């Protein structure tokens, strides 16, 4: 029973963290606005913790990570793992940093996620329909490609209105 719960959480961690960011942002009613709170919590949880988790799996458990995506283990997994760990650390640190820091992080993350999405769609077109290649994780990635820059713009607008 506990093992099944742990397996469920690990298999669905990206979706759980994405939803958790919305829940935490909505639960806190104090300023700043919901959009700015959501922006911060997405960077911390949905980008930061999720990318760190993914990176650690690619680096330390490459067979598990590769199988979940429908890939074979590759030396490039170490490289993508280190990139994911780096993005995760930046996302986590961004939670406590200035809007300028967050902006730099968002543009890097967004460009990286565009590449990730294109790669996963190309793999799906070649027949790789593994859940972590062409499933909910891809949908969350595409939503973040749109949502993070929009929330950045709203946060910037809110900050400028206070000045």
Describe this structure in words.
- The protein has 163 residues and is mainly alpha-helical.
- It is 82% helix and 0% strand.
- The protein has helices at 2-11, 13-27, 34-60, 62-69, 76-94, 99-125, 136-162.
- Helix 2 runs antiparallel to helix 3 (34-60), helix 3 (34-60) packs across helix 7 (136-162) and helix 5 packs antiparallel against helix 6 (99-125).
- The model has no long low-confidence stretch (mean pLDDT 93).
Mean pLDDT score: 93
Tell the overall outline: globular
Question: In sequence order, what are the helices and strands, one letter per element?
Answer: HHHHHHH
The main β sheet shows up as:
none
State the end-to-end distance: 53 Å
Number of helices, where a helix is a run of at least 4 consecutive DSSP H or I residues = 7
Portion of residues in helices?
over 70%
Gyration radius, in Å? 16 Å
**Which structural category fits the helices and strands?**
mainly alpha
Total count of strands? 0
Our estimate of the beta-strand percent is under 5%
- Low-confidence residue ranges: none
